[in-house]
Records
---
Amino acid sequence: MPTETPKTIFVTGGAGYIGSHTVLELLQESYSVIVLDNLSNSSPESLSRICALLQKPITFYQGSLSKSQLLDKIFTTHKVWAVIHFAALKSAPESVEKPLDYWGVNVGGTMGLLEAMRRHGVGRLVFSSTAAVYGTPVDPTSLIPETHQTVPMNPYGRSKLAVEHLIRDLCTTTPSFGAVILRYFNPVGAHKSGKIGEDPKGQPGNLVPFVLEVVSGKRKRIDITGTDWETRDGSGVRDFIHVVDLAKGHVASLERADFLASSSSSTTTTSSPTTSPIPNYEIYNMGSGLGTSVLEIIKTMSAVTSRPIDHVAAPRRAGDVAQVVADPARANKILGWRAEMTVKDMCEDAWRFKEANPEGYTSVWEGDSSGVLGVDGRLERF
Ligand SMILES: NC(=O)c1ccc[n+]([C@@H]2O[C@H](COP(=O)([O-])OP(=O)(O)OC[C@H]3O[C@@H](n4cnc5c(N)ncnc54)[C@H](O)[C@@H]3O)[C@@H](O)[C@H]2O)c1
């Protein structure tokens, strides 16, 4: 936790689902926050609500990662202590249709960010990666450790793995750089306040927003793609993690990135718990270590909302697997972090946000929204 003057964290993609929950946790831990987001999949209302909830300001830049002049302006104007990099395109099916977009934003955008960090001497980074980098589990009955092979099945997963390699190469040549890679499993839920939550633009790509559209009557039913897996109820099993637990994982990772940046040139590196011999680069799974089936999620959501959720069996999707569950032991041990909230908490919190915000974030923001969001949540444009 920062002392005296607050440390400033630059959060790319901070208006989005996981980014906004992380911004909230950072502010609660007394960091100061600068957000860059092009709002391609989010609304600045998430940030505005956080300001009003916590009575703290956020500096917001509306713009793209690919604008090097904007990045220079941000790094020149603010004394950035560390970067948390969420901004990306994230739909695996869409990435199959638009591979160039995914490589351009996810890899090209990250290259621009890393170049700017180097130009401005900022050397602490936490990066959003994904369990999709693993591909099909070698043993579907076992937990997946960070040392599992990485054979991603789609352009999205490949673009994230490429960024991991890019950051690793930068760490190799720049010992003063410290990077923590977080591979998320399935983030679900919302902040307890019901003020911020998951509000995807267009058709939801994840299970829970889809289920909630059935609960709220926007969709008739949900297809269970694959009901003949070798799992306890035949539906796929995944590792669901509450988004607030995940957000706290980022806060824990900041101090780790600082440690890596400051100690990588020392001789303690052989005992460093990395998955690679690069002493200033570490990878952690962000998961609970517990498997929950798709049908169990539907059952829990139905109980939480006291509503039936119509679902039908559908064929398996190409590339799907029976079970994908994290081994989170490394993050538990080294980061001192663990997922604490239950699937019931995830469903209750996701429903609270959906019930309070059936249409998601609805404020209309005309023009460029760059400026300072004040403690009342109002935007003072630059
Ligand atoms: N949600 C998941 O299930 C999941 C799982 C694994 C990994 N991740 C990764 O976590 C990160 C955050 O995911 P999320 O669920 O919060 O997604 P999100 O879409 O809600 O957040 C991403 C944010 O980045 C912004 N953005 C996209 N391209 C940008 C660009 N070029 N410049 C500036 N801003 C840009 C979007 O507007 C959005 O606000 C992503 O990197 C994603 O790949 C997400």
Note: The CA atoms of residues 228 and 234 lie 5 Å apart.
---
Amino acid sequence: MHLEEAIVQRRSIHDFKEKIISQSSLKDVFAKATWAPTHRMKQPWNIIMLQENGKEDYAELVLESYERQGFFSNDEKAEKMKDGIRKFLNKIPHHALVYMEKDEDFHKYEEDYAAVCAYIQNVQLLSWEKGIGVLWMTSPYLDDPLFAEALGIESSSYKLVAVLQMGYPRQIPKPKLRVPIDDKYELRDDPFI
Ligand SMILES: Cc1cc2nc3c(=O)[nH]c(=O)nc-3n(C[C@H](O)[C@H](O)[C@H](O)COP(=O)(O)O)c2cc1C
């Protein structure tokens, strides 16, 4: 697959087959993605791959975080909702939690966050080339310190950047068209001050 094809044809996937992806394929993607640009060679990305029984624990932690954030009412409906979310999350074959150390220097923190985002896009494109779908998620539980601690991540030192839902796509959504570049791109090739 040409790079241009991967970039233009990739879609965020919301509906996955239940088939698990081999660790060797996943490791290949996450290893090649490390060629992302990274200032000072900090390579700030870390990954916890949650799958099989591990994803069941993850789903419970997500529900507990939603509960803490007052997402559920106190009635029967809440139990049904929780059950729906639990089943939905458990059907997704892989949840890759991506996190980074928080640099105390804000400028370096931003450089690291940018590098992790470049890394994630590499993961998305390399996955797409292998027929693997990804949904890049930044749900509110990623900012819940108790959620991080339950995963064994010290929330004062680390930022949870994203959860990547991964699996073979059952359905590929239609493209969401982009704003024409002429609306965004300004050429200045004469002195302008
Ligand atoms: C930083 C970031 C966070 C995102 N978080 C979510 C999310 O929480 N839930 C979701 O459904 N999609 C999320 N997305 C995916 C976007 O919604 C998606 O890229 C957009 O709709 C365009 O669709 P496409 O990727 O198929 O072109 C996120 C994307 C980025 C870059």
Note: The chain has one domain: 3-183.
